[in-house]
Structures are given as C-alpha cells and as structure tokens.
Amino acid sequence: MTLIWEQVVVDALDPDALAAWWVEALGWVDISAGTDDEPELRPDADTLPGLLFVKVPEGKTVKNRLHLDFRPDDRDAEVERLVALGARRVDVGQADVSWVVLADPEGNEFCVLGSRRP
After folding, report:
1. Band of residue 95 on the pLDDT scale cut at 50, 70, 90
2. 26, 29, 41, 52: most buried by Cβ count inside 10 Å?
C-alpha cells in the first residue's frame, strides 16, 4: 500500500481571503482560481502537497494541534516580511528557541525556523 500526501486542509471563516494571504506569503499558485471549488494552493500546479482551504462556521479558539514549519534563508527577514503581510507573533509557550511562532490572519500558528546547522 502506498500513501501520497495530497494536502493539508485548513479550516477558515473566509477561505478565499485566507488562501489569498497564503499565496502572498508562500508565492504558491491557487490551482482552483476561476472555479467554484474551494481554494487549493500548491507550489506549482503539478507539485504536492498543497493547502486546501475549507469554510467553517466558527473561528479558531485554541492552539493548533498541527502546524506548518518553514525554513527560509534568512529567518529574521522572513518574519519581518510575513508580519508586514499581516501575520502576528504568538506565544504558545515556546520559551527561548531558534524559531519564531507566527499566526496567519485567522490565527493559525506556523513556525519560521532558523538556519539548519551543518
């Protein structure tokens, strides 16, 4: 049996707006653009996994049980860029660590990691 990781599903009050934010943040493409389908983002049309944004009636109320980690070339510059796009720093009890925890406009936490050690 083989499993292929297709996507991560993200609950959202406004899937279109949240997907548009993530398009800006990641530079990915919305492969559902121009359709009535739920927004689905991928690095490019043929690359998996992606992010699928689905509408839910309630807002986020507690810490994520699953989150995404990103490793940029320059952590501090990337954090600054993401905050300028509308992310915010959040404290989930991480203390003194080499990564920064941010939340997207709907409050979903994600981490921006420091450089990988050799």
Report:
1. confident
2. 41
